[in-house]
Amino acid sequence: MAAAESPTLRDALERYIRHVAMERQLAANTVAAYRRDLDAYLTFLESRGVGAPSSVGTTEVSDFLLSLRNRDGGFAPTSAARTLSSVRGFHVFLVAEQLADKDVTLGVTAPRLPSRLPKAVTVDQMAAVLAACEGEDERDIRDRALLEFLYATGARVSEATDLNVDDVIGLEEGVSDAVRLLGKGRKQRIVPLGSYARAAIDAYLVRVRPVLATRGKGTPGLFLGVRGGRLSRQNVWLIVQERAEKSGIGVELSPHTFRHSFATHLLEGGADVRVVQELLGHSSVATTQLYTLLTADTLRDMYTTAHPRSR
Questions:
Q1: The whole model's pTM is what?
Q2: Structural domain of residue 178, as residue ranges?
Q3: Any idea what the Cα angle at residue 113 is, between residues 112 and 115, rounded to 5°?
């Protein structure tokens, strides 16, 4: 191929974005994050006069990471690690498409990440937050259904906002038995609903959702806002914050706290880690095993408190 016909890094980026969006079917938010990371990377390379895939070396990748750390205010290790992951994926693609001879990121290491355990609340604290939704107006009934759903399924907030009425399994028999969730990489999983979540969702579907739906444009979404449109991620975050504050537990909650608490409480109750892995939609059991550290800490505390020879 003549030099004039060789694709630039920008051309290759557009091909890569199409690849992750269409062939790998990654979520829109993930694709957008890849584009942001790689736009910054290519801008750095262009400032060095590097515009062709074959012209990038390990030095450029390392210098790019160093430039992130030297930004005003610094760049968090988690953000730098995520950016390096985006850059790695791009260079693997360049090699696979024969746009580069080798993966120049192989010799580059990500910054060391601090060990951070997921945050979970206690069973009693979760019960208090759910009780803060008690009431008979449409927002109370809707919020109770939403929060019971999050705690019963461990769903990601995006999975909750993307959920449609047809994804609730068992409605044709008059009762919601389980839900069909579409997770990362568009992987589908079925998660059962407990009796509390079933009752809350059934009440919402019968008494509130039809009213909310008349105010909108006929969205198939399960959880709707007061104007009849599908709830957004920000809507869910605000609902969680409001109900946590009303509960008086004194702990700051996010939608992800429900996912962490779901996993932790299942493991504390004796669930097998591989079952929890399936319910959470984790591709690797190693991710789920983070939660076992929480339960081990709980057991250690109980042992220290109760055993006469523990100290």
A1: 0.61
A2: 123-304
A3: 130
